[in-house]
Design goal:
Blueprint (H helix, E strand, L loop, with lengths): L5 H7 L5 E12 L4 H4 L7 H21 L5 E6 L2 E6 L8 H24 L5 E12 L4 E3 L17 H5 L4 E4 L8 H12 L10 E4 H13 L7 E4 L3 E8 L2 E12 L3 E4 L4 E11 L10 E2 L4
Parallel strand pairs: 4-7
Antiparallel strand pairs: 1-3, 1-4, 2-3, 5-6, 7-12, 8-9, 9-10, 10-12, 11-12, 12-13
Helix pairs in contact: 3-4
């Protein structure tokens, strides 16, 4: 008998890499780190209680606004990454529109709750890029069990039989080497010093570029609208059947933000409002809440 574990099998059978287009939203609670730095990272019971309450609230709002069939979300301390799944293409453009609306509803509800509690709010950034899906997504405790220790060498381990099989390592496919996530994170970290300040909602030009491409290649679309006004830009993907109605659209603040950092240079837009697919854009839009 060959002595082997499931981990050995995983290490010997690395999956073939796939490069997939990526869209990622990154939302970050503002002023969160000061709770720790102001107290030299030693918090009392009440301070921990307040922090946990803030985290639970934002995570509960997130859960109510997830789009299960179209995304993967990951909580990282006081930040949340949401990856729109493009493994099989975008499908109908309105799937993306619905996901964007859910991101805005999430952002707005968090802002409303933070405002009521006198807290600084949330900043959200959406960017596009690619992700390299290149390895297994997790290592479980059962993966370390050698076959010769099992009652049936080809059967289940005691971890699996008991149902208590903790994850030891996680490497979620939707976020594996995801440059859309990296861009969104860098833009958020740049902060007000580079023009990306406050509890606002931003989109990177990489995302607009992808939307422009989708407006040409996706079914039921025939290009996009770009309109420059005195204090804003209008970007929209109109419906093929009636260009007065949009699959999705944004009102963006003018002027744009010319972001130049050591890590990344781009043009970034502050979102003022979103046009959903099921309303007349001449009469209705969803304004972005801010503090």
């Amino acid at each position: 008998m060959e002595y082997i574990s499931d981990l050995d099998k995983k290490l010997k059978n690395i999956p073939k890499p796939r490069i997939i287009p990526a869209i990622c939203s990154w939302s970050d609670l503002l002023g969160f780190g000061s709770n720790f730095t102001d107290n030299n990272w030693n918090l009392n019971h009440k301070q921990w209680k307040d922090i946990i309450q803030r985290l639970v609230l934002i995570q509960s709002i997130l859960a109510r606004n997830l789009w299960p069939s179209q995304e993967f979300a990951l909580v990282l301390n006081d930040g949340i990454a949401r990856s729109f799944l493009l493994d099989h293409g975008v499908g109908h453009i309105q799937y993306l529109s619905l996901w964007l609306r859910s991101c805005i509803y999430f952002h707005n509800e968090v802002i409303q709750n933070e405002r009521k509690r006198g807290l600084p709010g949330l900043r959200t950034v959406i960017a596009a890029g690619e992700r390299a899906v290149h390895n297994w997504e997790e290592v479980k405790a059962s993966d370390f069990v050698f076959n010769y220790t099992k009652s049936d060498p080809s059967g289940l381990s005691s971890y699996e039989i008991s149902g208590d099989n903790p994850t030891i390592l996680t490497n979620p496919g939707p976020l594996q080497m995801n440059t859309a996530f990296s861009k969104a994170f860098i833009i958020d970290e740049a902060g007000s010093r580079f023009g990306v300040g406050g509890a606002n909602f931003y989109i990177d030009e990489s995302f607009l570029d992808l939307l422009k491409e989708l407006s040409v290649t996706s079914s039921f679309c025939e290009g996009y609208i770009w309109e420059e006004r005195d204090d804003s830009f209008i970007f929209a993907i109109p419906k093929q059947s009636d260009r007065d109605y949009f699959h999705l659209g944004f009102e963006l603040e003018a002027p744009l933000i010319d972001l130049k950092t050591k890590a990344f240079s781009s043009q970034v837009y502050k979102v003022k409002a979103f046009f959903p697919h099921d309303e007349d854009p001449r009469e209705f839009s969803i304004p972005i809440e801010s503090i």
